[in-house]
Task: structure prediction
Amino acid sequence: MARAGLTTDRVTLAGAELADEVGFDRLTMSAVARRLGVKDASLYAHVRGLEDLRGRIALLAADEKSVRIAEATAGLAGRDALVAYATAYRDYAREHPGRYMATQIPTEIDPELLAAARGPRRAIELTYGMLRAYALGEPDLTDAVRLLRSMLHGFISLEAAGGFAHSRPAEESWSRCLDALHTLLERWPAEHEPHGEGDRT
Amino acid sequence: MARAGLTTDRVTLAGAELADEVGFDRLTMSAVARRLGVKDASLYAHVRGLEDLRGRIALLAADEKSVRIAEATAGLAGRDALVAYATAYRDYAREHPGRYMATQIPTEIDPELLAAARGPRRAIELTYGMLRAYALGEPDLTDAVRLLRSMLHGFISLEAAGGFAHSRPAEESWSRCLDALHTLLERWPAEHEPHGEGDRT
DNA sequence: GACAGAAGCTAATGGGATTAGTTACATTCT
DNA sequence: AGAATGTAACTAATCCCATTAGCTTCTGTC
Result:
């Protein structure tokens, strides 16, 4: 009966912590309620339901991640910025697997919330900003952003899913992949001339 | 009462179809039972439960995907093989989003089943085989495999999650990313020398 | 034609999500 | 202080899903 002092933010945070502990897909309203010492139904005064909570966790994660990356890359450029960016990104994902997972599940987020959120937009800006040092023009810059995001996200997901055998430490591959990425960004290939019979429309 | 002719494989297939339609995370035993015109409990004679079914779908997907890739890359080498590989990979993921998702969720698969499954092993072999044309030695080859898998998986996930704004068709970025990857593989950078304050201007 | 085994069913239990309606606390106004 | 008001949190109820136990019915075999 003593008021637990719930707010939307506190519920979201508890959900995020729980997601980090047990996995985003195993997040349940009941477990969040238990963690907060409150009955399930009480949560509905603060979040619309499980879907809504998930969306909020995703936005929280986007915010936190972009702050981390901003701090890590401040004042850096070129390879240093790239490495700092990627490392901050990966560290966040490893520290907060549940929240990270939240950002990658295609979930319906309340458009109003999404519009108000800074994280996602900030993340894009940071990425473009970081790559600016490589002097790519459009549309190459956009393609490079997508390549970078794909690689980071893919590596982290595969690593988290246990997709890399133990033959070689992921750490070393990670480092070498960043080298490769840096090299690639410095010598971004020109539009390639059609070649052989495979004409990919 | 008319026998529905269930088998483990049929249940798995129904689950896979359902996952493709409604999303892997929304897959439920009840829905599979309904689709098969059978009571929930009947499924348990063929699969251990939801987790088991999920694992089986993941293995099915790995099999199907590797077959597709094998067919697509047969007889090709170099850039053609790379493009065929990547395209087959992506097409599979787009045609079967649920099954594809199944392969990326860190799920506990019965070790016995896993050992019997050909798909995952075959996929690795295909990847190494395809990259052999680029004449990389170990450990670079392993790193390149990881980079390739990361990029493909990341791109596909982000695309599926709606992560790319509409500013530029994903199709074009995809094509350019493959160009970039090809270039990178041809000129895989040597182990990089430690390098001052990132002043490569 | 009886039997063994499998295929499928009924019934029951336990959780989780969600809603409606209720109680108790805290703030503010007089 | 005492009443009014909004809201935090609760109780109770409903529905859906996962899973288990035990029973029935079909199919093929000797």
Summary: Residues 195-201 of chain B have pLDDT under 50 and may be disordered. The domain at 59-186 of chain B is CATH 1.10.357.10 (Tetracycline Repressor; domain 2).
